[in-house]
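Now for a typical sample entry:
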Amino acid sequence: MAYGDGSDDARLRAAWKSFCNSLKDAGLAAFKDASPASPLQRADAFRFLTQNLGQAFDLALETKDPAFPQIHPFVTPTRKLGGDVADFTYRQAWIDGNHTYRITGRKGTARWLNITVQGPRPLTIPGTDWPSLHEPFGDIPECNILGTQIEADSDGVFELFIGGPERKGNWLPTTSESRKLFIREAFDAWEETPTTMTIERVGMDSPRPLPTPATMTQAMDWAGDFVTGLMRDWPEHSWRTSRGVCDPHALNTFPADKTANDASDLHRGRMAAHMVWQLAPEEALIVEMDAHPGFWIFGMGGAFVGSMDFLHRPVSYTPARTRIDRDGVVRLVLAHDDPGVHNWLDTQGFRAGNLTYRNLLTQDAANFRTQVVPRDRILAHLPADTAMVSTAEREDMRLERYRAVKRRYGI
């Protein structure tokens, strides 16, 4: 059967051509000013696009029908998006506030879990004239439940209802505009295990309909907007809208206002700080933070703010995996090669990128200090008792990271 023999052939071909044109346009953004021109980072810009091309139709089609929900991991060791931070896992499920859903699962031992019902996605960020972040982001948190609030049996097994009549115990309300569940889990020690869960619509008594030509054309339009949006919005959108968390012109330092702590962040269950770093081959950056209680994470990101290679490289630190100096200061060292310092953050050869801080259990702002130092003079700028590691110890740390991250994702 040839083109034209089907009644929807013209419509499908036009939608496919439009998607392919969107993909071509998205690729041009790999050369924008915010994307460093070094060979490694040019390649990384296209990798950011192709990683997300791989999930475009999972989000736009395969998991899109809220009557037949699925939990989709939109960040993995081989797919980065949305300013994700290493030591988090990120999952979502499309829902409809007019339905009732049941999640069943088993709690893991991760230190933090947050399940949020996301509501409408306005064209602009409320209170501003800034456009909302591209799909599937930009929606407004409506309510949430933390892992510590989820009741489970002695084996950690639980069920959580989303929407429908109010229930005692594990229940999250929805509104007519509820459209998504956003599931984030954060890990501290390497031995911590993930929460497993699955979702179904209550009363799901028939198979999911097969996609129609109309469904496919809608998916192609959504996917086209998705790939162009992610290449357009990152990292500039976060620079413009993060309310003082990041100043891209103040390189290698956190801004004076170090916390994002508005009403939506209360539902997200976190506080944030962010800086843009840039280092020449002969330079290193020392980041200091006065140690404080709670659960915090430092994570390295590339130019498009996606997390760096957290499966293979030391690009993140948490309290359980960080050595704190005797003076009560956390000191991290960003360097292009291993200086032998325990708290080394690997730039993975990038000349510029992002460093993100998350604080998940307290509302206390951190106190940061940074300094750029010569690479061959790092130790002269650190306390004499700075924790060091040998080459063999670093390899043990790398393997411990590799195995733990694979357990988190079941890969």
About this structure: The first strand starts at residue 72 and ends at 73. The radius of gyration is 22 Å. The chain has six helices and 17 strands. Residues 9-234 form one domain.
